[in-house]
Amino acid sequence: MLPYLAAQFQFSTSWLIELLVFVALYATLAASLNLVTGFGGMFSLGHHGFYAVGAYAAGFVASRWGAVDPGSASGLACFAVSGVAAVGIASLAGVAVGLPCLRLRGDYLAIATLAFGEIVRIAIENTPALEGSLGLYVPRVVLDPTGRIATFRLVFLGIGVAMLGVTLVVLRNLLRSAHGRAIVSVREDEIASDLLGVDTTRYKLRTFVLGSAFAGLVGWFYAHYNGSIAPREFDLMVGIRILLIVVLGGMGNLWGCVAAAAVLVGVERLLLAGVFGETAKDWMQVCYALFLIVLMLGGRAAALKGLRFVGARLGFVRRPGTAS
Amino acid sequence: MSQLLSYLSIGLAVGAVYAFVALGYSMVYGVVRLINFAHGEVFMVGAFAGYFVLRDAGLDRLPLPQPWPAVAAYVAALLVGGLAAGLLAVVAERVCYRPLRRAPRITVLLTAVGLSMLLQNGARQAFGPSPREWPSPRVFVDAEAVPAPADAQYYVVRTFVSDRGERSDHEEVLVAAGATLPPAARAAAGGATVYRKAGLSADEVKLGVVGMLVLATGLLWFLVRRTRLGKAMRATSEDADAARLMGVNVDVVVSATFFLGAVLAGVGGVAYCAAYGNVDPLTGFLPGLKAFIAAVLGGIGSIPGAVVGGLLLGLLETLFAAYVSTQWRDALAFVVLVVILVVRPSGLLGTARREKV
Amino acid sequence: MRRVLPAVLVAGILGLAACGASESSSKTLTVGVLLPMTGDQATFGESSWNGMLIAEAEIRAKDPGFAFQLERADEQSSKELSGPQTKKLIENNGARIVLGSVASSNTMGAAIVCKEAGVPLVTPASTNDTLTDDPKKFGEMLFRVCFKDSFQGTMLARFARNTLKANSAAVLIDKGSAYSVGLAEQFTKEFTRLGGATFEEGFSASDKDFTALVQKVGQRKPDVIACTGYYGSAGPMLRVSTEAWKGIPLIGGDGLDSEKLMKLAGEPTSRVYFTSHFVATDTDPVVQRFVEKYRERFGGKLPDAMAALGYDALYAVFEAGKRARAAHPDAPWTSAHLADALRGLQFSGVTGKIVIGPDRTPRKEIVIVEAVGSTFTFVEKIQPE
Question: What is the complex's ipTM, to 2 decimals?
Fold first, then answer.
């Protein structure tokens, strides 16, 4: 079925569960960016900055909470409080970035948000309290994974799916509401909306901050899942990955995010695990970039067709045309 | 006071490199309203091209009879670096940007980002991610000159040949000025030849870069103001459709703009890496970003703006690093960007554009 | 159709899991090796790996019954990948023990994964103290075959004060590296205890342009400059320091120990010294035998400290393996047995006699090396008290 598998590769349940965890994580991140870029029409290349802010807020709270038994009341309280901190501080960051920058259009906004993403990384690296590149250690507060990795990951899978579910539901309801209509109208034609009395700045800001809040939530999740965080884990490549998922899944298409996240994260994890051999892994970044360019030049439809073709060849997908 | 002057000279040199790259950004934006993210990587490719020229000219391996071949090699490196960068840019424009001329902004933006990642990672795969030392030139002096005269530093170069007959990298022993060769080296030197290093001093390099910038700006000004191509470029940047109606071949103008901007970036790349002594695939990322910020600072689309922005950013950065903090130096560039975008988005020398309803 | 695609993908992977092999042969010990094969610490990774290859060949010749295989993963000199790659080694390749990494920051990522998976981690070259001194964070499964920074920093400070007779020191710290921050701390502590004065400057490893920093430091005319980062930063610093640092010696830790150091440095006007675990010009016969073997296999190249440590690290695994096999003769390899065998392990390596103490770190000798041209000359060897 898959003639390319490396000989020494072993699948294990924990590896699989981790893959699903990261699918949920990236799907939520993509959904939060989709809100801002797909629905709101604001090109944000610095979304990973809010992800980082949330992760570090949560990590900082957890590391200063004091000695705690994983799973105890104090531990769970720490878990909850760090989550609130993550969302809160990421939202504040959203306001801080949004207020000056949302006046800018298109390319300029993209660059300004990119700059923000970089500033966050440099700031974290140079703040002693956050341990910089050494890595901030996030103590285990929900469950101690030592000796039971699969269980730990399963628990976090549950949390991750819940997080994704909540995000999708909230976003869907938001987009169906008056706010949703307003933001789409602003995206379509900002000047016209302005003339029609829509307070464009307020809606844009709200959308942007909401997007950053959700990104912060994912940051909290990641910090507790991983047990340690370092600035390199939130660099531009992460931002590109999220953007790629949004574009692949379809801007303005929430379920598309989930599907696209599954594909991207799945392929990446398989590559990282060495399934297709060591050289494939080295070329991963190059392929990403190529894929992005091809996607942009050829359009999403062509890329999906291509993916389906490859999937059919590998036996994953039934050939198009057959009943699905 | 002399410290301040020395910092100022460093800032000018760094700023000159930024200016070289910023010119490319500004010119391209002026003509096609596109922020060419991949410009930083073009800088890096130019630097690598120059590196290969110098390496294959044998600058660091074989004796050169007189000093001036080293100069010739450097000029060749600059030219080849510029040309390679220029060609790359033209190809990139033709393949990636031209089909998207009427596409929505985000598509073009993402393509540019993708192109930048492709070049960076492609270079990583092709050249390896580790930094490579920049070749430094040597001048043959005398086969027997031991002990070394007081005014120079000498190398003894020998090749190690293993028992299986494999040749290793050249091994070198540095002899301090005025000293004799250490006994072990003398014993091993046997019939080795002795060279004197002949690179440019740090100050000469700085002067060279700034000088090149002045020359390049002058040439560019002449091109834009006094030639037909320049006129076509200005026309296209004002109104591409009208220019086309007037018989300007917009495609050629765009390609030429990309080419020129990239040549400048490539030259800047060679100069930058020569000054710092190493080159690696990620060389272009941060300077590219900063050069972009410089272009915005000076007014994107404006040629004098790019030069002013570049020099100003270089100075600000160096003075900040010297008198405030070295660690936060990179953050300064980004803060400058945000400030200028918020306070005066058209930049210092740019004209404010009003959005027509 | 879009909803079917991800479901089918997941089903496909689950199906593979069901039919895929779940247990590797438990008679062969899989040793996971995590190293920076690419990136700015690539020379460290390459050297360590080469050293391990020499050890591998020797062990196979000495004891063919000891069945093991090396499985290597590249962390690309970044902490971002050291955790996931360690997970890959343990979960996807069935490693029961992991060797690696080099840079302390990256080893930290691997350490957390190993702690939670209950797999022992033997680092050849990570010298940061907290790795073994903070069991809450990194567990008790992390072992070293090299000395700690508290020892290295102290020795470096004594060298600066006693041999170089320095009264003031500039301490250049790579804020992005646990190694650099830790070493600088230890150096400063001892240097000030011995009566010297220090001042700090920070830099970032991704910098290329050190001219402003170099000027700033040179202007204050310290007696010695301690750069606690890696060769990838120290080299370029030296290159632009010919005026500003004329006559001021530069010292550093084992992070400077790389053939690329002087190549990147060009022709500095400062003398360059650093502390390390091993130097090929050491006349000790054990060292020379290793140097011979290395030169023969790798085309005349001289081994550096990382190669020697890689060699010793694999030998540590071998010795621990022998011990574990003696204690549990017919059992399959398990991480717990190997960890037990590592505690209190003693053997003679090419970097000295290695006795794993209660802090899971050996007390070993340290060498001081001077970098002259492309040669590393042996200055002195100091035994621990």
Answer: 0.77
